[in-house]
């Protein structure tokens, strides 16, 4: 069961590197699906009164675009790097709970498939209430079909996957560090993974409750969000955004971690102000909990609430700004090697700063009232999550591709990819600021020519398709690299951290001998880490065992979710039985790492 | 229940499973905090009765609260027995822990049934909805705990719960005490402060 070839070995694998690759490719497929949805949206909006899709389909497209990109593409792409890179960076043989890790992955895949299965059913009952599913739009009264059911059940499955991964990485990073790897020697990417994991385990229970209450409203006739029965639709908004704002940092902190690894490597300088960057990340994690109501200024929460949340929102820009200056200072005076990875990292700084600035603009309630629910907000979120997170993730891909596959991605194609994407992204999203301020609301399937935003919308559509072309260049590059890519060796970049001390791709047990760390930048230090401590006995490396039970347990979740959809009780019992069988066999099987 | 993590050297000297469980409990705090907040936000906003003071039976629930507290004591004794390798008493205390847990659940079933007879359902008003979802979620946690404890008990019956498994029992105990503490909060907020 613990072989390294064939389908079975992938289905039962508990090796963090293979799970990382599974996460990567699965999430990348969802990224392509979400991107395709975005392109159809842009095709529809290319000119006034367009009829590419109907209003109903348009609602489904923007809902699934947002939900897919956030929960099925960006979070799991970050998770792919958590999985592959973090154990290598901290000098561990695997994560703390390898089978729980496999379970997280399978729950994620099955949750994603469950959500998207709605496309395949007759009449396409696809979720259509926006990615934050505001109450009333989601009530049975106004949405009688199973559309919202797919959404709320799918998100609960994905929540289980994220929570399990969160616990796993907290323990891994706190407890499996190599000797000498003190917390303040931890690479920044691992630090940001830790902060992100804490945000995941604290934010997801809140959205779980929001979704459970919605589930009771829709299936059992309660009135949590129904104003007619004394309930309050604003409760949904509070619960959702108490989760939703930490979620924003769950999406951006890993990318910040990635570029904090990429910039020092290609400037050949230690990260400027490591301590400050780490503390800023932790501070962002804490402050991320105190800003949620800035998503709700237009609700009318009153001047005191508005002022407080306006203040906290402006404050959280401070640690973020600190990081940006630290990254710039890291580049300053460095021996810059302008690789594709560095292009994307610098692109991140520029674009994320623009997104951050428009974010501070929303922090002022009077300005926000003008901008809310217009394309201005769409521009903001895409500068932050596309210009920020996606660029950061691509920086990570170019940087760690050789470690993960043993071959370097082509640099010429990489730079072509960067420039197409950089130009495309600005063409697509910069005009949206103006489109929004000129008065075009978001989430409307078409607009009249008299609004005067036709040209800007066309430019935006051209930009979006340019991004699409850049992704094709990346895929071609990845495909070409399999055979023709330069062989990486242990360390193609001269990196400072532990993942570069071992072969690419690393052997199943990662390290022949667990390294002893004596500095923050082990490979750049005069004190040099001793690859093999003197007198150390070489442990017999053993391949990690495989297990079927995480997959079996994860299969119980979508079956459980089918029960309310089909209104059949025995399906619920079947799902519970599969889940419980999986957990019991998992708990009692002999398992050695 | 041999586990991978036990074989590892750990940086903080704390067993990985225990640390994961503390993180899990932290996460659960947010879950119950959200449910309790929802209950409090909707307090006094029901449009129709029955209202809390019409229906909540403090003497009865005090007894089931006492019952759950005693089950925590049994759990402490069970862990102590396992730690000193005393299989006979481990069996006794684990069984009693589970039994008191089952009594608590039986009390909750009785309470829910009588509430429904008195007209308080999930659909009736906001009090019913937020009360049943909050206490029901807690009851589901107690159910999971009872199944877990009975699993340990069945291991003990087969003589497979020695000193080496003390940590497994300790973690189960952490869960059980946590569920108990949550109940103290619910009892105070829902029943005592009406």
Topology record:
The complex is a heterodimer of chains A (593) and B (194).
Chain A: H1 6-11, H2 16-45, H3 55-90, H4 98-117, H5 147-175, H6 188-220, H7 233-267, H8 274-287, H9 303-331, H10 340-362, H11 365-371, H12 375-405, H13 411-437, H14 454-484, H15 549-566, H16 569-588
Helix pairs in contact in A: 2-3, 2-4, 2-14, 3-4, 3-5, 3-7, 3-12, 4-5, 4-15, 5-6, 5-15, 6-7, 6-8, 7-10, 7-12, 8-9, 9-10, 10-12, 10-13, 12-13, 13-14, 15-16
Chain B: H1 16-41, H2 52-55, H3 58-83, H4 87-117, H5 126-157, H6 166-192
Helix pairs in contact in B: 1-5, 1-6, 3-4, 3-6, 4-5, 5-6
CATH class identity of one domain in chain B? Mainly Alpha
Q: Report the helical percentage of chain A.
A: 55-70%
Main structural class of chain A:
mainly alpha
Number of strands of chain A: 0
Low-confidence stretches of chain A: none
| CATH architecture annotation of chain A | Up-down Bundle
List the defining traits of the structure above.
heterodimer; A: 593 residues; mainly alpha; Cytochrome C Oxidase, Chain A; 66% helix; B: 194 residues; Four Helix Bundle (Hemerythrin (Met), subunit A); disordered N terminus
Notes on the structure:
The complex is a heterodimer of chains A (593) and B (194). Chain A is mainly α and 593 residues long. Chain A has one domain: Cytochrome c oxidase-like, subunit I domain (Cytochrome C Oxidase, Chain A), CATH 1.20.210. In chain A, 66% of the residues lie in helices and 0% in strands. Chain A is built from 16 helices and no strands. Chain A has helices at residues 6-11, 16-45, 55-90, 98-117, 147-175, 188-220, 233-267, 274-287, 303-331, 340-362, 365-371, 375-405, 411-437, 454-484, 549-566, 569-588. The model of chain A has no long low-confidence stretch (mean pLDDT 93). Chain B has helices spanning 16-41, 52-55, 58-83, 87-117, 126-157, 166-192. Chain B has 6 helices and no strands. Chain B has a domain at 58-192: Four Helix Bundle (Hemerythrin (Met), subunit A) (Up-down Bundle). With 194 residues, chain B is mostly helical. The interface between A and B is large, with 47 and 40 residues.
